[in-house]
Amino acid sequence: MAKRKRLTPAQTDYLSAPAPETKSALGPGAATSSVPIAQVAGDASTQAALSDLVNVMETARAKGLMIEEVPLELIDAGHLVRDRLVQDEDELDALMSSLRARGQQTPIELVEMDTDPAGRRFGLVSGWRRLTALKRLYDAASDPESAADFATVKALVIRPESAQDAYVAMVEENEIRVNLSFYERARIAVRAMKEGVYPTQRAALQGLFGNATRSKRSKIGTFITVVEALDAVLWFPASISEKLGLAVAREIVRDPGFVDDLKSHLKAGNRDTAGAEMRILAAAVQAHQKTAEPPVSEPDVIDRPRIRDTHGAAAGERINTQIAPGLNMAYTPDRNRIELVGDNVTEALMEALQDWLRNR
Fold first, then answer.
1. Number of domains, the chain
2. 64-67: which pairs have CB atoms within 8 A and are 24 or more residues apart?
3. In the structure, how many helices (H) and strands (E) does the chain have?
């Protein structure tokens, strides 16, 4: 009788047994947890992402869109001729309190420049008040730890295409945030012309105050007369009101010799306050208005440009004559029309002309 074969019980741990070790094709010690080509692809993807991020950041910085923290000692606050002559201490104290409580919320604007002998690498374009407030807080700090909170300023490093763009950025920032006096506006136009940023008064007014109304630009242009005549002797020029400034300019246009009278009054008077200086100016204007007559001498009559004979002028013909530097007159005989054009056509000239026409 055939002998039966004895059956062994099934291996219950067969499915859970570890897989037999396989040899790596890359040799002993090679990692087998991931496929090599996948790792290479992952590294390439990471490098590409980092490169894209660097490009985005460099582009943002080049366009002045990235806020950076710049140490205070690297900034030249006098890089541009500032338009603000005086600073309201109450407003500055309020700004310092805000910076102390909440930190700097709005960045200033800087422009990168060649490092100067003092080690400064950035020039201030706009944000003079914020920078001044931070410097005061830094200087007043009682210990290094608290001083560190105000040692840097948040800034956008912009790249204006020209000096004109930099001046416009400064003016617009102040026009929006804290209004300037007419004198301060006129003064920055004068200084920009002296720096060679603008070739003419008209170009300076249009470039710096292009967003202002025509009437406002005209008044700023009128104040330029006051700035050019009295900037060296005035102590509180930002306090000159619109009405007083226009009156001073009008008298200067009517009689250029009035400038010397004004300087004499100012130097001799007690000007310990802005109000005192304004009273001296107002009194001088009032006295001059009563006594001044437009100076007419024989040489002036001889040398004054004369319009050519208008007989036989063609229909619609405009006959142009230069009356003075920066002032031209155009006459259209058949239309009974006279036009005055040029950089020296200001509100002061208009008011002086009105006075002359009324008294003819």
1. 2
2. 64/109, 64/156, 64/157, 64/158, 64/159, 65/156, 66/156, 66/157, 67/107, 67/154, 67/155, 67/156
3. 13, 8
Alpha-carbon distance 136 to 155, whole Å? 18
**Contact (Cβ atoms closer than 8 angstroms) between residue 106 and residue 130:** yes
Per-residue pLDDT reduced to its tens digit, 196-235: 878 888 888 888 888 778 888 889 999 999 999 999 899 9
**Tens-digit pLDDT profile for residues 319-357:** 777 777 777 787 787 777 888 887 778 877 887 787 777
Q: Which of 103, 127, 162 finishes a domain? A: 162
Tell me the CATH number at 76. 3.90.1530.10
Residue 179 falls within a domain, yes or no?
A: no
Nearest to 328 by CA among 337, 316, 319, 317: 319
Q: What is the pLDDT of residue 42?
A: 67
Task: Give residue 336's domain range.
Answer: 303-358
Identify the burial level of 226 via C-beta atoms within 10 angstroms of its C-beta, where 0-12 means exposed, 13-18 middle and 19 or more buried.
buried
Q: Classify 313 as helix, strand or coil.
A: coil
Q: Are strands 122-126 and 319-324 parallel, antiparallel or unpaired?
A: unpaired
Cα angle for residues 137, 143, 145 (degrees, 5° grid): 85
> Is residue 7 situated within a structural domain?
no
Cα distance between residue 315 and residue 334, in whole Å: 6
Q: Is residue 13 part of a domain?
A: no
Question: How many residues does this entry show for the chain?
Answer: 360
Q: What tens digit of pLDDT does each residue of 165-175 get? A: 766 666 666 55
Residue 94 within any structural domain of the chain: yes
pTM assigned to the model:
0.48
DSSP-derived secondary structure for 127-182: -HHHHHHHHHHHHH-SSHHHHHTTSEEEEEEE--SSHHHHHHHHHHHHHHHSPPPH
Exposure string of 284-293, with b = 16+ CB inside 10 Å and e = fewer, is bbeebeeeee
Q: Which of 113, 146, 162 is the last residue of a domain?
A: 162
Q: Residue 346, CB half-sphere, CA atoms under 13 Å: how many?
A: 27
